[in-house]
Design brief:
- It is a single chain.
- This protein has 324 residues and is of the alpha/beta class.
- It has 2 domains: 207 residues, Rossmann fold (3-Layer(aba) Sandwich), CATH 3.40.50; 88 residues, UDP-galactose 4-epimerase, domain 1 (Alpha-Beta Complex).
- The protein is built from 10 helices and 14 strands.
- 45% of the residues are buried.
């Protein structure tokens, strides 16, 4: 009998890649999707999925879906995932992410019995670490959490809810903190994707040869989304409930935003002018260098990133070339 997996936010960037991986691994894949959500990320394999209309901010809909599906594994990816948007709508970000996670965990707790005792992955973020000092690089899971964005605060709250439900009700929660990740289907509001889309538009003569950018000096730890979802699957199969695990590339996968842009420009023949756009700057930013340590996770699972940054960005650029 196939194992059942349920993905909240299945039509999103990461959710769609995870769904593809689970299908390839012979899981029965269920997904929760808002009626108004765009499905272009999953349209090519949508018929292989079992989709359920639901909303993580509606406890009754979650109870109904979980009671019907009774999945063995739950991957909680739904929520407001944009750091920049969290500055514009902090209350909405907190409501969606914190209340949504609380509802999911409460629904699982209410239905938990001998026939339903799932492993639950809670998708945290490196944004939880926030203010990190140079002496703390590379960042371990034990590093203090000092979030400096409403989004980061919301993800810390999700972590705490997951730990509380593990300790209070023995819900098998596993927290993963993914660092920056990119690849095809990445939303255009993220730096790597907005650069790729602008290049694709310039190539086709749809816009002037000018690329607008925010802070180019920050260095970030980048991993391909396809390596990230492979890690998520390994997390529920091999990791210990009630624990936190960094998912990242480490020093070898660390690049400045300027370097990322340079790699993208090396993949095209167009010449461009770079222009800073103040609207793309955040009220406060994470440190100039943000590098993670994934040794705890890799020791248990054997995972390591396999896709290099040039392939990640080339695939992302090709994705936008097909769409502009």
């Amino acid at each position: 009998m196939k194992k059942k997996a349920l993905i909240t936010g299945i039509s999103g960037f990461v959710g769609s890649h995870l769904a593809e991986l689970l299908l390839a691994e012979n899981f029965e894949v269920h997904g929760i999707i808002l009626w108004r959500s765009k499905t272009e990320n999953i349209d090519s394999f949508k018929k292989k999925l079992i989709l359920h209309d639901g909303d993580i901010t509606d406890l009754s809909s979650l109870l109904k879906i979980l009671k019907k599906v009774k999945p063995h594994y739950i991957f909680h990816l739904a929520g407001q995932s944009l750091v920049s948007a969290s500055w514009q709508s902090p209350a909405q970000t907190l409501y969606t992410n914190v209340i949504g996670t609380s509802n999911l965990l409460e629904a699982i707790t209410n239905l938990k019995d001998k026939t339903f005792d799932p492993v639950v992955q809670i998708a945290g973020s490196s944004e939880e670490y926030g203010l990190v000092f140079s002496r703390e690089i590379p960042i371990k899971e034990t590093n203090p959490l000092r979030p400096i964005s409403p989004y980061g605060v919301s993800k810390v709250a999700e972590d705490m809810l997951a730990l509380q439900h593990f300790r209070s009700y023995k819900i098998k929660t596993i927290i993963t903190r993914a660092f920056n990740h990119s690849g095809p289907r990445r939303g255009e509001v993220f730096a790597t994707s907005t650069f790729a889309k602008q290049i694709a538009e310039i190539e086709k003569g749809l816009k002037k040869p000018v690329i607008y950018h925010g802070n180019l000096e920050a260095k970030r730890d980048f991993t391909d989304v396809r390596d990230i979802v492979r890690a998520y699957l390994l997390a529920v199969l091999k990791c210990k409930p009630g624990e936190v695990y960094n998912i990242c590339s480490g020093k070898k996968g660390t690049f400045s935003i300027k370097e990322i842009l340079s790699i993208l420009l090396s993949l095209t023949d167009v010449s461009v002018k770079l222009t800073k756009d103040t609207k793309r700057m955040r009220p406060s930013d994470t440190p100039s260098i943000l590098v993670g340590d994934h040794s705890k996770f890799s020791l248990i699972t054997g995972w390591k990133p396999t896709i290099n940054i040039k392939k990640t960005l080339n695939d992302l650029l090709d994705y936008w070339r097909e769409r502009v």
